[in-house]
Design a protein that fits this description.
heterodimer; A: 273 residues; mainly alpha; B: 322 residues; 80% helix
Chain lengths: 273, 322
């Protein structure tokens, strides 16, 4: 896994971004919300490595603090979605019957009828902005993927010989699920979680870009892009740097997901990057 | 005799096809109903009083009461729901607060722009991905393949809200070839369509490559080559035609992403479509209009998926028989 240079680069990028998120107050050269109106819209120079925005705030400092929001929202959304999805998927796949029909046909199908992040957008539109609400809104559609994946894997694992043998030996149902079936489910879920982090970060940035995510003045990459859009002629750096950081984070998590997939299941190894 | 057997088989076949179409339609109905219900309950998610939110803090008590009555929010929940369904059946989506006109009318004026943009984006995606995917498959493992693979991954990770401004920077500000924003001419359509279709092109390139590679290993391709057909004909007439089946499904599934991506793209390029309208409605807390927009987008999505499934049966008759 570590031999692939792309994986190493991705890990390095994610390591740097995670460090920024964890140690933002120590790493940021300036206060991300300190305004300096006479020094607004400055191009990158020695004092401000990535320039300043329309209120004279240091772009680099805001980007470092923005990483914090991206990771916080991304990790929260994936954690909640994974917990809910794994629980519902396991129960539906393991017990089958009406429980499976209810979740699989009714709940999941009706939620899937909303395209893309529209469901999250609809919920945020009516709930109002805020980080907590954003996490709820994104988790609301996020758990579906995990539930479907876990259900499928549990269904597959349930029929394996050794699981049948354990059942025949009288292993209690709960133990059967947790000790014998779940280890089979973990690898694909880990891969999905890595890719899910990319998707959650992208969704957060998209909603913040639309002005429906993290409310200002909290710095977030999507919000910074939205602010910078009005200055695309006179200060293009306001658009370029946040765009690059979203792209790098998403790209790195996608590469990591692919690398994990290869590592955990070499049969699926893809040659197309 | 042979003719009558053929006729009989054709008849059985069309009955099976008709049954599939009816089944698929019946399956879509409850989903539409669920979406309608979800959209109805959305307004009850609003913290506090939605009417006060819409009218602002300075609104008088009489105005608030009047609007509450107009929206039916002073009735019991079930009665509200029944009224909502009854109005919807008549095509009445409510009254927009901001525009002071019927929601259905406003949506109808904006809808064509979104359809135009979405179709243009789809066209861009297909025009880019089919040759790219085929070339990657033909040059499997070589530098062309790797380059196209890298570009498609880049396209996948580059969000459209970042791609839009970057394209504006390069082609509108830098070279001055295309307008920054607006609506009306073909030149106005190019940048938004590329912005919206870019990610889809990336996904489709991977899919076209994979499925063409699969087809190239089949016996019929070897036969076509043995017949002495040109490589171009083998590729595009034989392998690609069969390889397009999974691509059709993917396009159907991805149209939903296009519809929600339209919201971002329309905002960036001031495109007068339903996506930008939704956002304007959200920002001005025009809840009836927001509900109408979400309903329209979701129902469009369901219809597109339905059409994709039906189209799929036309392209691949085996599905009807299953």
């Amino acid at each position: 896994m570590a031999r692939n240079p792309l994986t190493l680069i991705s890990l390095a990028i994610l390591g740097i971004l995670l460090l920024c998120a964890l140690a933002a107050p120590q790493l940021a050269p300036q206060d991300p919300s300190a305004q300096d109106l006479p020094g607004r819209l400055q191009a990158p120079d020695r004092a401000h490595w990535l320039g300043t925005d329309e209120l004279g705030r240091d772009v680099l400092s805001r980007m470092i603090f923005g990483a914090r929001i991206s990771f916080r929202v991304g990790i929260s959304v994936v954690a909640i979605s994974l917990l809910v999805g794994a629980l519902i998927g396991s129960l539906a796949g393991f017990y089958g019957g009406w429980l499976d029909r209810f979740f699989n046909r009714i709940v999941i199908n009706s939620l899937l009828a909303f395209p893309g992040i529209l469901l999250a957008l609809a919920v945020v539109a009516f709930l109002g902005p805020g980080i907590g609400k954003l996490v709820i809104a994104l988790s609301l559609s996020g758990w579906i993927g995990y539930a479907r994946l876990v259900r499928g894997e549990v269904l597959k694992a349930r029929e394996l010989d050794y699981v049948q043998a354990a059942r025949a030996l009288g292993v209690p149902q709960g133990r059967l699920l947790v000790v014998h079936i779940w280890p089979n489910v973990v690898p694909p879920v880990v891969v999905q979680a890595a890719i899910g982090l990319a998707a959650a970060i992208l969704a957060e940035a998209t909603l913040s870009f639309l002005g429906l995510g993290v409310p200002p003045p909290t710095p977030s990459w999507g919000g910074m892009l939205n602010d910078g859009r009005g200055h695309i002629f006179d200060a293009p750096h306001l658009v370029v740097f946040p765009a690059l950081s979203v792209m790098l984070a998403v790209l790195a998590f996608n590469f990591l997901g692919d690398a994990l997939r290869d590592y955990l299941d070499p049969r699926l190894r893809k040659e197309f990057l | 005799m042979v003719r009558s057997i053929c006729k009989f088989r054709m008849k059985a076949f069309s009955i099976a096809a008709a049954r599939y179409v009816v089944n698929r339609l019946l399956y879509a109905l409850p989903v539409v109903f669920l979406v309608i219900s979800l959209v109805f309950f959305l307004i009850h998610l609003v913290p506090g009083d939605p009417v006060e939110q819409m009218l602002g803090e300075r609104a008088g008590a009489a105005d608030i009461a009047r609007m509450r009555h107009e929206l039916g929010l002073d009735q019991p929940l079930l009665a509200q729901y029944a009224t909502y369904l009854r109005k919807l059946a008549r095509g009445d989506l409510g009254h927009s607060v901001r525009f002071n006109s019927p929601v259905a009318g406003i949506i109808l004026t904006r809808y064509p722009a979104t359809i135009l943009l979405t179709l243009a984006a789809l066209l861009v995606a297909l025009l880019l991905s089919i040759p790219a995917g085929v070339q990657a498959a033909v040059h499997r493992g070589r530098w062309q393949d790797r380059l196209l693979g890298f570009l498609s991954l880049l396209g996948l990770s580059f969000p459209n809200f970042a791609l839009g401004p970057v394209l504006i920077l390069i082609f509108a500000v830098g070279f001055g070839w295309l307008p920054v924003s607006g609506y009306g001419t073909l030149a106005h359509l190019i940048l938004p369509a590329v912005t919206l279709g870019g990610a889809l092109a990336a996904i489709l390139t991977r899919m076209v490559r994979m499925s063409v590679l699969e087809e190239l290993g089949q016996d019929y391709v070897r036969t076509a080559r043995a017949k002495g057909l040109t490589e171009r004909r083998v590729l595009y007439k034989h392998a690609l035609r069969n390889g397009l089946l999974p691509v059709v499904t993917l396009v159907g599934l991805q149209l939903g992403a296009l519809l929600s991506g339209a919201m971002v793209t329309e905002t960036i390029f001031s495109w007068p479509g339903i996506g930008r309208l939704t956002l304007q409605a959200i920002n001005s807390r025009d809840y009836p209009l927001v509900q109408g927009c979400f309903l329209t987008i979701s129902v469009t999505y369901i219809l597109v998926n339905l059409l994709t499934d039906l189209l799929y049966t036309v392209v691949d008759p085996r599905i009807r028989e299953v």
